[in-house]
Predict the structure.
Amino acid sequence: MKISHIIFFISLLLATFTLHAGDVDSGRTKSLTCGACHGPEGKSFNDHWPNLAGQKTGYIILQLKAFRDGSRYDPWMSPMATPLSDKEIKDLAAFYSSL
Ligand code: HEC
């Protein structure tokens, strides 16, 4: 296999990875409402609301989907997750894990 083919396949793999990963900037934009409780930089304002800064991407995605489908319930948090699309969840997870 020629070196140019190898480079082509590697770029293809990277492009695929990028397409599936969440977008940090979109997540930051979307996080404005979340920041009211979880803090603008993912550090919560009080003792009852969790910090999200630096949390694992996969864990955030699982929790947001659980709040959205009702398998995890909290009177504050559940209404926040209900309207989120899969893409918004991925972007928010990418943003908070990047902090
Ligand atoms: C009105 C306050 C409030 C807002 C706004 C809010 N949350 Fe939450 N969030 C909470 C509370 C309270 C919990 C803890 C719920 C529990 O105890 O189960 C929580 C939990 C979470 C968790 C799970 C954390 C963990 O460690 O398990 C994630 C992830 C999360 N919120 C993300 C978000 C995102 C993303 C947004 C914006 C779309 C958002 N929250 C908006 C109050 C809020």
